[in-house]
Specification:
signal, Ureohydrolase_dom_sf, Histone deacetylase, 2 helices, mainly alpha, His_deacetylse_dom_sf
Length: 70
């Protein structure tokens, strides 16, 4: 028996400053493409069809506090 699994969700994560970096010529990561994709999602209204979770920087603050205690 053949079982077919269909996944009907996509995980999309975008940090606000991800498009501001340049890794040099020939590097496989192209941050401007991430920024362009994010702008397309906003301009075409696709974000309205997504579940949006907002990440907080609490873990980062805890790590900095732990480093300061050392």
């Amino acid at each position: 028996m053949l079982a077919i699994c269909i996944i009907d969700f996509v995980f999309y994560l975008c940090l606000g400053d991800v498009g501001n970096y340049y890794y040099g010529q020939g590097h496989p990561m192209k941050p401007h493409r991430i920024r362009m994709t994010h702008n397309l999602l906003l301009n075409y209204g696709l974000y309205r069809k997504m579940e949006i979770y907002i990440h907080t920087a609490r873990q980062h603050v805890r790590v900095q506090q732990a480093d300061a205690a050392l």
